[in-house]
Amino acid sequence: MQLTVSRDAENLQKALLELAQAGRRVALVPTMGALHAGHMSLIRLGLELADAVVVSIFVNPKQFGPNEDFARYPRMLEADLRKVEEAGAAVAYAPSVEDLYPQGFDSSVSAGELGRILEGASRPGHFDGVATVVTKLLLRTLPHIAIFGEKDYQQLCVIRRVVADLDIPVEIIGAPTLRAPDGLAMSSRNGYLSSEERQLAPKLYETLTHVGSAISKNELPVAKALAAGVAQLTSLGYKVDYLELRDEDSLQPIERFKDSARLLVAAKLGNTRLIDNIVILSS
Ligand code: PAJ
User: Fold this and answer.
1) Tens place of pLDDT for every residue, the chain, 283 residues?
2) Which atom of ligand 1 is the closest one to the Cα of 41?
3) At the N or C end, where does the chain have fewer CB atoms within 10 A?
4) Which three-class secondary structure state does DSSP give residue 198?
């Protein structure tokens, strides 16, 4: 299938109409570009679960705080379009800021309480920005399914909540985190790491797996296991923002582990903030 590149809503509607007329089941994969193997795994999953994949590429200004990396976020549209085409997607939707937020745009979707904890506590307004753009992308595309990575686990929870609360007729699919061979979760922001920081970066996942195994085997009380993880990361030179055991859906704290939970971490290496998470199942 040849790739159709749409730069505005009108053009997108034409491409979507063709897919609908051909009776295609459509999967949407929203991204901010700078595509890596993690993004490509979502496109592949889309092709398995649907007949046609629409990939959106848009660096959304509303989800970046004033002191965050919006201006220096990597932008490489030509290379991204080649990757999307090679992967077999049907449509790449790469709108301008004016196309999604025309003059006078003044509404937003609140991510609610889920959007204010964990990442939301460190990045006020971030998840409202995500909820707003994802709602618009879903309504503009009206896909059968939309795929999001578990790499950004809280984002996946927020989107599931918004879609359920606002009756958006789409099935949300969570996809597993793709990692480099040394365990580091793939991320467009990994390119910010210096070579020394890149060497230390896999310790984040290693620490998650150690803490997770202590919790799932009940070797330590949850609070002690988490404190040991924070101490380990701090001694390696990380500035830990949080390391928390949370309920898989509500993301509320879990003090005593039973059957399953999410272990989530955010920590800074130099100026780069890394996030990761794993599921914990009782063993
Ligand atoms: P972005 O960071 O580009 O990520 C796009 C999608 O790829 C998200 O669903 C993210 O969870 C997923 N992803 C990133 N790294 C991954 C990895 N290593 N393995 C599997 N999936 C991975 O997340 C966003 O963009 C934006 O917030 C967006 C949802 C597009 C809204 O602007």
Assistant:
1) 699 999 999 999 999 999 999 999 999 999 999 999 999 999 999 999 999 999 999 999 999 999 999 999 999 999 999 999 999 999 999 999 999 999 999 999 999 999 999 999 999 999 999 999 999 999 999 999 999 999 999 999 999 999 999 999 999 999 999 999 999 999 999 999 999 999 999 999 999 999 999 999 999 999 999 999 999 999 999 999 999 999 999 999 999 999 999 999 999 999 999 999 999 999 7
2) 20
3) C
4) helix
> What is the residue with the minimal CA distance to atom 23 of ligand 1?
31
Q: How far is the CA of 136 from the centre of ligand 1 (A)?
A: 16
Tell me the whole-structure pTM to 2 decimals: 0.98
Mutate-to-test residue for ligand 1 from 36, 53, 152, highest number of ligand atoms within 8 A of CB: 152
Q: How far apart are CA 185 and CA 202, in angstroms?
A: 8
Q: Could you tell me the two tokens for 94? A: 């790469």
Express the helix, strand and coil content of the chain in percent, nearest 5 each: 45, 20, 35
Containing H/E element for 268? strand 260-269
Q: Ligand 1: which residues within 6 Å by Cβ?
A: 30-32, 38-39, 41-42, 60, 63, 130, 133-134, 148-149, 151-152, 155, 175, 177-178, 185-188
C-alpha to C-alpha distance for 111 and 156, rounded to whole angstroms? 11
Please tell me the distance between residue 9's alpha carbon and the centre of ligand 1 in angstroms: 22
